[in-house]
Amino acid sequence: MVIGIDIGSTTTKVAAVNSGKDIIKVKTRAVDPITSATGAFGKLLVENHLSLGNIERINITGVGASRIPGDLFGISTNRIDEMTAIGTGGRYLAKKDRIIISNIGTGTAILEVNGNRIIHLGGTGVGGGTIIGLAHEMLNTSDYDTIMCHALKGDVKNVDLHIGDIAESNIGFLNREYTASNFGKVLETATKEDIAAGILNLTYQVIGMVSVFAAKSKDNDTVVVTGNGSKNVIGQRILNSISEMYDIHFEFPADAEFATAIGAAKS
User: Domains in the chain, start-ordered, CATH in brackets?
Assistant: First the structure.
């Protein structure tokens, strides 16, 4: 069995891949790299009744991987380039050899996968960290569940300027309901729920458009969304609305939040 550990800035994820097709996954909150890696690894072993003798090797990746000295628990431990892990995991989950990957974590990385070739195209600093940071300043909360609860009840029309607010008809292929300016029309009556909805809309529209431009530049019509942000239901809805407008298909595979850990294990 091979263990992949993705040591991120907010969460650490572990994926155990055996000779069959089963993948065991666990996730813990990131503390410091060593505590996160060893804690998540121990949780995997205890919860799944595994022993160290079951482990062939450990592959670590993510921002905290460089902070882990030597081998873990006396098991051969390899450092895997994070972009390689994201691309390998995304390709495995998508079951396709030619895709664009948008990996949404604290920020967002954009990659091209073409066969065995994985290219880091770039990305944006907008991601989960943006949501937490703006909510902390604007809503006085950094709790993700609270932010989502507010956003699900909010109306972006009370904070965002839409094309219909400034034009009598569609502009080109953009209909009147599309955003002209995020937070360009914050009404005095806007509630905290509306603000939360606006934060989510800003974040995922930026990610969506960067992804579209990357896909178009590579003559590709499929964007596979991975990382923690892939499972956000509001974000999925926003990306799907962009998909309809630009004819770029966003896919949200099962276990997408573990794509990097899975890719590390399979590298």
Answer: 2-79 (3.30.420.40), 96-253 (3.30.420.40)
Q: Token pair 């390899």 is at which residue? A: 78
How does 106-119 read in b/e, with b if 16+ C-beta sit within 10 Å?
bbbbbbbbeeeebe
Distance CA 15, CA 263 (A): 9
Q: Where are the beta strands (DSSP E) in 80-139?
A: 98-104, 108-114, 117-124
Around Cβ 31, how many Cβ atoms within 10 Å?
Answer: 11
DSSP string, 132-199: HHHHHHHTS---HHHHHHHHHH--GGGTSEEHHHH-SS-BTTB-TTSEEETTS---TT--HHHHHHHH
Write the DSSP symbol of residue 18. -
Q: How many helices (H) and strands (E) does the chain have?
A: 8, 12
Write the single-letter amino acid at 181. S
pLDDT in tens, the chain (267 residues): 999 999 988 889 999 988 656 788 888 887 788 888 888 889 999 998 888 998 999 999 999 998 898 899 999 999 999 999 999 999 999 999 999 999 999 999 999 999 999 999 999 999 999 999 999 999 999 999 999 999 999 999 999 999 988 887 777 777 788 999 999 999 999 999 999 999 999 999 999 999 999 999 999 999 999 999 999 999 999 999 999 889 999 999 999 999 999 999 999
CA distance linking residue 172 with residue 26, whole number of Å: 47
The type of residue at 237 is R
Report the SS3 class of residue 70.
coil
Calpha distance 76→2 (Å, rounded): 10
The model's pTM is: 0.93
Q: Which of 226, 267, 258 is nearest to 59 (CA)?
A: 267
